[in-house]
Amino acid sequence: MTLRIGALSWVVSALTYFVAEAVAAAAMPRYGYATDYISTLGAPGLSPLAPLMNAAFVVQAILFPVGAALMVKGSRASKASAFLVFAVLNGIGNFLVATWHSGPSGGGPDWHGVGAFLAIAGGNVAILLGSFVFRRTGGSGAYFAVGVALGALGVACFLGLTLDTSLTILPIGAWERGCVYSIYVSQAVTAVYFLRRSRRSVELAPQAA
With contact defined as beta carbons under 8 Å apart, do 131 and 142 qualify? Predict the structure, then answer.
């Protein structure tokens, strides 16, 4: 039951994010998915629906670590604790992104930048570790391969976002979305996989009895 609740939390968060992003982007004139930062959609004064986008960040800040904790509850997998640590870092990062908006920091700490780093790096490391954890708790080889591929893509795009400062390979929005979408897609894939497996187990239980 805890696994199913955790999986549902991940599905809800992923759907919330993609819907909020699409609606906020449609409401902002001349916004480009490939050329603009995601955070611009949450910047008051720039984005007409900034509160909606920031609400989606807060939803992820809560549901990603909570869902992770529920899905590995009782697991003895060696990487489960590390997975939870990075899931919490992703949550902290998303909360900072939602509450400290992009733009000039006024000479103080760039908490928005810190939040973006924690959300992206923490989330991608979490899904890589989670692939190993969930493999040990019954995930198939195909699921494991997809999870690792998404995590590797996210890490590669994060490196591109950091190192491709001249934007000679991809525009900034493409790099950023590559390392953000990898997290949401991975959590959705993981959640749907385990929800379907749980449903099959329930359907087969009477026959086994």
Answer: no
Percent of the chain with pLDDT over 90: 81
Tokens 């992003």 belong to residue: 21
Residue type, 195: L
Per the CB < 8 A criterion, the answer to whether 84 and 134 are in contact is no
The secondary structure of 81-139, three-state, reads: HHHHHHHHHHHHHHHHHHHCCCCCCCCCCCHHHHHHHHHHHHHHHHHHHHHHHHHHCCC
Tokens of 62: 């809560």
DSSP summary character for residue 169:
S
Domain assignments of the chain as residue spans, ordered by start: 2-208
Residue 197 confidence class, pLDDT cut points 50, 70, 90 = confident
Non-local (6+) Cβ contacts of 58 within 8 A are: 94, 95, 98
**Helix or strand or coil: residue 78?**
coil
Question: What mean pLDDT comes out for the span 118-138?
Answer: 94
